[in-house]
Design a protein that fits this description.
The complex is a heterodimer of chains A (about 400) and B (about 375). Chain A is α/β, with parallel strands linked by helices and about 400 residues long. Helix content of chain A is about 40%, strand content about 15%. In chain A, helix 4 links the parallel strand 3 and strand 4. In chain B, strand 16 and strand 17 form a beta hairpin. In chain B, helix 3 packs across helix 7. Classes of the chains: A alpha/beta (about 400), B alpha/beta (about 375).
Chain lengths: ~400, ~375
């Protein structure tokens, strides 16, 4: 049995999504939604139905939802499209996903000023630190509503008031928040909001950006009038259909799934904490989504734990992978003030819609056993003293 | 259940084929690629600002392809900090002392057959395997023996003299009985893109071959020892910017003109003097080795034994008598005159095909008398 505890990287496809996509692949309508003929019209109807379902997940009007190739494209569209040339400053946090941090680094090269606010030791950003910086030079504030690595829910409502008053845009990356907490764009007060289908049991390669009406956003992909001229290119219809069904499923089951996940997650944390002396939970205790457990395992390398658990059938993650596939210590934990050694000893376990009681029971039994073996075989007290950087 | 083996995969032909052979033989293979060398400085990469922490996507692509093809798990593991502390640091220090280290020997000793063992135990692997060309024979009762590879041109047993019985019992060298030609044929059969790629001769963490530059970047300026180039009569021929530019036995790049070719005979880290002499001045009677390891201790016959000794990887080996001393030291006396001795390199003792052991060359023995 393989136990999948990496939902923050991507959830398995929900059965209803698979059925809907299979039905589409089998029966169509196979045509371009922009085509004038009947099959084209039917394809368009499917696309719009999917848009309604995605919009319902966040309490938005369907026309304000633009389909993209995923969360990364949505973030790029929000940042490159929303960085207005007459306002030259952007505020973000130090714990964002690379699809935020790298576009911002590119904008910085084009002359934008980028402020990266650090979180507290729980991974929470103090709203006053951000609001204190907001003035009429700010084009955009972009912040991850739920942090992917520690599950912290950022207090964004206070920030929304400040951006509105200053005429700046507020972009929320809600890829990790969708289906894990109620989302209403009007309550959040955001102008732009990123969603990703595969984080909630939809297909990968499908995402969306919510754009509040009246928001000036320059399109990023050019080449056609699709998506109300906000995103050119023939839409990924099977991806959108899958996304729509995933959103509908996640919404209708949200209460039940969230309750189950919270129970299982608490149970797992309690058993691991009892069996592993010195185990530490990273992230806030209150303002958090319950599915994410970021844990520092004392005395071991997270890299080794990840491999050893994988060979035992338990799939977890650590920080992010580099181009060659090596795991790097989490920049989020480092920004929260953990030292490099603690970051290297930390793993992320993320539960989701498919997680079962039996899986959590097995994980609670296996993880301490693997930890004891790894501590004995490869204790990190043998870690070297000279940092690589010194030899540059 | 079949034995589990952790295979160190570099992405090169040899280790890829080694892993494939083990998988095909029914071992439960776990492929690991090691990140060892520090990342190039950001401005040294052609694309300018690449993310400073990231290695190249292509680095382990072939290793990954083998793993995918044969469906075994594959991981990239990050041993850069260990490598920096245990291999590169030693490399720099040795050059600053006027010696010429062999980082591959250090890497085998400190990383592949040490660090990787911890990892293997953590992953419940029974063996560690590499793509080295060497063989293991015998059994635990009568002693495991480390042997040269069948392919003499590829033999890498020189780099493995640090292995002991404990390591050999848990090590596999699938390529030891194969020729390079056979390995390349396997690689083509496996569809490896690098099957015909020429082999790299450079040290992995000095891809441009500029050892002196690496030493200068890593060391404090105060540690660099400039000085004189002097001849046998003690006359100064030139000044040099640092002893780390020189290796005993080196001829090219001395920056001095003389009637006959001159070679580096000795490097004095205290004064900074680099002594050069004609080839005839370079012979040594033997050497003192430190950190000596015996693969099969019973081969030492009470501390004195005869063996063929290789003093460089590509050295053909010459007869010598070896006397073991205190604290892992040994005195090696060549039966006839020996070649220039390069401190810091490994000297490895052979009897026929068997590697008896070896050590790190501390210094040459001058003349024919007893050690002074």
């Amino acid at each position: 049995m393989r136990i999948y505890l990496d939902h923050n990287a991507g959830s398995p496809l929900r059965p209803a999504v698979r059925d809907a996509m299979r039905a589409f692949l089998d029966c169509g309508p196979h045509a371009n939604p922009a085509s004038v003929h009947r099959t084209g019209q039917q394809a368009r109807r499917e696309l719009e139905r999917a848009r309604e379902r995605v919009a319902a997940l966040i309490g938005a009007a369907p026309r304000d939802v633009v389909f993209t190739s995923g969360g990364t494209e949505a973030n790029n569209l929000a940042l490159f499209g929303g960085a207005s040339p007459d306002r030259r400053s952007i505020i973000t946090t130090a714990i964002e996903h690379s699809s935020i941090l790298e576009p911002l680094a590119a904008l910085e090269k084009r002359g934008f000023g980028v402020a990266r606010v650090r979180p507290d030791s729980d991974g929470l950003v103090a709203p006053e630190v951000i609001t204190g910086r907001i003035d009429h030079a700010i084009a955009l504030v972009t912040i991850g509503l739920v942090n992917a690595e520690v599950g912290a829910i950022q207090p964004v409502e206070a920030i929304a008031d400040a951006t509105r008053r200053a005429g700046a845009l507020l972009h929320l990356d809600a890829a990790q928040a969708a289906a894990r907490m109620p989302l209403r764009v009007d309550e959040l007060g955001c102008d732009l909001l990123t969603l990703s289908a595969h984080k909630l049991g939809g297909p990968p390669g499908s995402g969306a950006l919510y754009i509040r009406p009246g928001t000036a956003l320059a399109p990023f992909l050019l080449g056609g009038p699709q998506e109300a001229a906000r995103r050119a290119g023939t839409p990924n219809l099977p991806g959108a259909i899958g996304f729509g069904v995933a959103a509908a499923e996640a919404l209708s089951r949200q209460d039940e799934e969230t309750r189950t996940i919270a129970t299982l997650s608490r149970r797992l944390l309690e058993s691991l904490g009892g069996a592993i002396p010195g185990l530490r939970l990273n992230g806030p205790t209150e303002r958090r989504v319950p599915n994410t457990l970021n844990l520092t395992f004392p005395g071991v390398l997270g890299e080794t734990m990840l491999m050893a658990l994988d060979l035992e059938g338990i799939e977890v993650s650590m920080g992010s992978a580099c181009a060659a596939g090596a795991v790097e210590p989490s920049h989020v934990l480092l920004a929260m003030g953990r030292d490099a050694a603690a970051a290297r000893s930390s793993l992320r376990l993320s539960l989701g819609w498919s997680t079962t009681v039996a899986e959590i029971a097995a994980a609670a039994e296996t993880i301490p056993r693997v930890w004891r073996r790894v501590v004995a075989a490869e204790p990190v007290t043998r870690a070297p003293r000279i940092p690589v950087a010194e030899l540059r | 259940m079949s034995a589990r083996v952790l295979v160190a995969m570099s992405g090169g032909v040899d280790s890829s084929v080694a892993a494939a052979l083990l998988a095909e033989q029914g071992y439960e293979v776990i492929g690991v690629a090691m990140r060892l060398a520090p990342d190039a400085a950001p401005d040294a990469t052609p694309r300018g600002r690449r993310r400073g922490t990231c290695c190249s996507h292509d680095d382990f692509e072939d290793a990954r392809r083998v793993a995918e093809r044969l469906d075994f798990p594959f991981y990239v593991i990050d041993l850069r900090a260990d490598f920096a502390a245990r291999v590169i640091d030693n490399f720099v220090r040795e050059y600053l002392r006027g010696r010429t280290p062999n980082p591959c020997v250090m890497c085998n000793r400190e990383i592949k057959f040490d660090r990787l063992w911890d990892r293997a135990a953590a992953l419940r692997a029974d063996y560690v395997a590499t793509g080295h060309y060497a063989r293991i024979a015998g059994d635990r009762q009568n002693g495991l023996r480390l042997l040269r590879a069948v392919d003499d041109a590829k033999d890498q047993s020189y780099f493995l003299f640090n292995l002991g019985q404990r390591e050999l019992a848990r090590t596999l060298f699938p390529l030891g009985a194969m020729t390079k030609q056979m390995v390349r044929e396997h690689a083509r059969r496996l569809g490896l893109a690098n099957a015909d790629k020429p082999e790299s001769q450079e040290i992995c963490f000095v891809p441009d071959g500029d050892y002196a530059g690496l030493v200068e970047r890593a060391a404090h300026t105060n540690d660099l020892r400039a000085g004189r180039i002097i001849d046998d009569a003690g006359r100064m021929l030139a000044r040099h910017p640092g002893i780390h530019h020189f290796t005993v036995g080196q001829r090219r790049g001395l920056g001095v003109a003389a009637g006959e070719p001159l070679y580096v005979r000795a490097i004095d880290p205290a004064s900074g003097d680099v002594a050069v002499s004609p080839r005839s001045g370079l012979t040594a009677a033997g050497l003192i080795a430190t950190r000596v390891n015996l693969v099969r201790p019973e081969t030492a016959h009470g501390g004195e034994f005869a063996a063929e000794v290789k003093i460089r990887y590509r050295h053909r080996g010459i007869p010598a008598s070896i006397r073991l001393g205190e604290s892992e030291r040994a005195e090696v006396r060549f039966s006839d005159g020996g070649p220039a001795i390069t401190p810091g390199q490994a000297c490895v003792f052979y009897r026929g095909d068997e590697v008896l052991g070896g050590g790190v060359i501390e210094r040459a023995l001058e003349g024919w008398g007893t050690e002074g």
